[in-house]
Write a structure and sequence with these properties.
2 copies of one chain form a homodimer. Chain A is an alpha/beta fold and about 210 residues long. Chain A contains 9 helices and 9 strands. In chain A, the strands form 2 sheets. In chain A, strands 2-7-1-8-9 form a 5-stranded parallel β-sheet, sandwiched between helices. In chain A, strands 4-3-6-5 form a 4-stranded mixed β-sheet. In chain A, helix 1 packs across helix 7 and helix 5 runs antiparallel to helix 6. The longest helix of chain A is centred in the C-terminal third of the chain and has 16 residues.
Chain lengths: ~210, ~210
């Protein structure tokens, strides 16, 4: 009912399952796409260039920063992450909803710069469960894991900066909640163009004039 | 995540399919119930007392008005409709989401009196389609139908008073949209009690104190 897509910022602590959730949505919900970020971090096993991230070196990343090609960028644990501007705007203008899977620092930048986006915080069932998940992933040292947990606690306490809070206890349920958020946002009245009502014969010509004034 | 249920006011023109939509939700979505209104209008074929409405006479209705037993009541086309207060509050307090299937006049009263409710406007695909539906229902005279259509046009033009706009073109899709609205509203951060985060081990004790202050 609206010309533009919804920008859905999906954030939350590292290891909470944001990317799996986003991948599920893009596969299951027509009219959605996932923004692919640039990063200077090294690919993890199974990560492919151009799918999970565009993996670039620091020089290339800095060039994009200078060209203002990022909506936001941040350095997290020594690695840089950036959201490319052009692809994102093009998709939104086509009416496609764009999911942005970013950390809390990146989300904060979007909040300051972009109007009308929807902010979803993804939380673990508990910090203990998150600790177990991070240990199983085995890509961090024990010290890094404790640092991440402390940061996660701070981020969760800041939940009010977001519109929605999805607790990823059960992936199917969390996916359904994220899908519901997107479908509900699509039918919000603040996205409804009065022209749509006129074009679709939903209001009489005489009422049309009342809306216009 | 919140102790209280969500009050979902489902309104829209007569004949738009509000009650079918609400019935679908109550059957398909656990944790939802439908508020049954009192009315002085005569039952249509297939309508049962205590299911679609409580059918009462005018004296009994006036008694309930005097006892302030209604959240709202209105007279529409010579018939009175009222939403009973007690059942509604009891369900919400149990954490059950309550759907209220009422006309625009009733919705307006709720907007003025109840805080925190969610307002969904259900629209027909077009006024022409609505005219056909009303003719098929055959419970109104042609004059009544034209009067209803004119009123529908005015109500649709007032869509901004509502949070969501569901166009009931295809019942399955409209049901899914209404379900999504309810599920999304449940996970809104403004419904999230910070106590919940503490009790579920989602924030560290030190962060707990930061939230409290």
């Amino acid at each position: 009912m609206s010309a533009n897509g919804v920008l859905v910022v999906v954030s939350g602590p590292s290891g909470v399952g944001k990317s799996t959730l986003c991948k599920n949505i893009v596969t299951q919900v027509p009219g959605t796409t996932l923004s692919v970020s640039y990063t200077t971090r090294h690919p993890r096993p199974n990560e492919r260039d151009g799918v999970e991230y565009y993996f670039v070196d620091d020089a290339r990343f800095q060039e994009s920063v200078r060209e203002e090609a990022f909506v936001e960028w941040a350095e997290v644990y020594g690695n840089k992450y950036g959201t490319p501007k052009r692809q994102l705007l093009e998709a939104l203008q086509k009416g496609i909803d764009v999911l942005l899977d970013i950390d809390a620092q990146g989300a904060k930048q979007i909040m300051e710069r972009v109007a009308g986006a929807v902010y979803v915080f993804v939380a673990p069932p508990s910090l203990d469960v998150l600790r177990n998940r991070l240990c199983r992933r085995a890509s961090d040292t024990p010290e890094e894991i404790e640092r991440r947990l402390h940061k996660a606690s701070d981020e969760i306490a800041n939940f009010k900066a977001y519109h929605y809070f999805v607790r990823n206890e059960e992936l199917l349920q969390a996916t359904k909640e994220l899908e519901s958020i997107i479908l509900a946002e699509r039918v919000k009245t603040n996205r409804l163009d009065p022209e749509f009502l006129v074009e679709n014969g939903l209001v009489e010509p005489v009422t049309m004039k009342k809306i216009a004034t």
